[in-house]
Amino acid sequence: MNTITLAIHGGAGRLGRRILTCALNDQRFALKAVVVRAGSAAEGQDAGQLAGGNASGFLAQSDMTALLDCDVVIDVSSAAAGAGLSAYLAKNKGPKLVTGTTGWSANEDKLIAQSANDIALLRSGNFSLGITALLQSVRETAMRLGAGWGVHIHDSHHSAKKDAPSGTALMLTNAVCVGWGQQVEPQVLPIGEVIKAAPQSGEIIISVTRQGDVIGTHYVNFIGPDETLQLSHEAQNRDIFALGALQAAYWISDKPAGLYNMGDVLRLKP
Ligand SMILES: NC(=O)c1ccc[n+]([C@@H]2O[C@H](COP(=O)([O-])OP(=O)(O)OC[C@H]3O[C@@H](n4cnc5c(N)ncnc54)[C@H](OP(=O)(O)O)[C@@H]3O)[C@@H](O)[C@H]2O)c1
Fold this sequence. Notes:
The chain has helices at residues 14-24, 47-50, 79-91, 106-115, 129-145, 167-180, 239-252, 262-265; strands spanning 4-9, 29-35, 72-75, 96-99, 120-123, 150-157, 187-188, 204-210, 217-223, 228-234, 258-260. It is α/β, with parallel strands linked by helices. Helix 4 links the parallel strand 4 (96-99) and strand 5 (120-123). Helix 3 (79-91) runs parallel beside helix 4. Bound molecules: NADP nicotinamide-adenine-dinucleotide phosphate (NAP).
């Protein structure tokens, strides 16, 4: 088994710390660098202790050049920082990048696509096995039922989440559109607003709640004239994302430049 040298960008965050812990306990990886925001309280802290474990002997730092000396970087910082990072790695022709950040603007989206011309880049707003399978089920259900049905997608997360709707809700929207074979702009309700009328056929409505410490719950209701079909997923801890990110990092370590997603890792049909 090859050992993959790994760096984590955004290692001081909620998800970054879980990835850090899981990576330190995974023999497939040798952790080389943990990069945090310049000026963060985590800068200069021992990386192992940052994750709540034993001292690992190397320190979290803000110097981006530390990322260049490894096989794969996992990014769980922010959309703006992640987009900048992708351009930086593309300019240096490596390392490979797995980014899980969400809330991308159209320009940041473009930057990611361009960067994938120079490096292998995997992007997913949700690294969990369950959501990856759910995306495929949603796509297939939308295709089988057709656009004669309406769709209501619900996204529920903790109150500190910065973006709304979630990256997962947007991926579910895209899965419906792919299944229908047509692009539909979803109607996004303000945070906390309850859906008042069922979506019309061919319409997608997204509702959002932000409360407490909910890690991530999504459901997709397909609403027909006299029946409703619901597909749903509930994340019970952040390790499902951390382990998925590590699976993605291992998978991408020998891939050529290009843009990949979790469906590629799990060999699910597009
Ligand atoms: N793909 C998935 O499966 C998945 C699952 C959960 C969450 N997410 C996404 O992953 C991202 C992080 O989520 P989270 O809950 O961990 O958020 P979080 O707790 O806010 O963590 C983000 C971390 O990134 C740091 N950061 C910001 N700018 C940086 C920079 N330029 N360089 C290095 N570090 C930087 C932040 O530092 P400061 O706090 O000091 O600013 C913070 O420590 C979000 O976009 C979230 O939506 C993805």
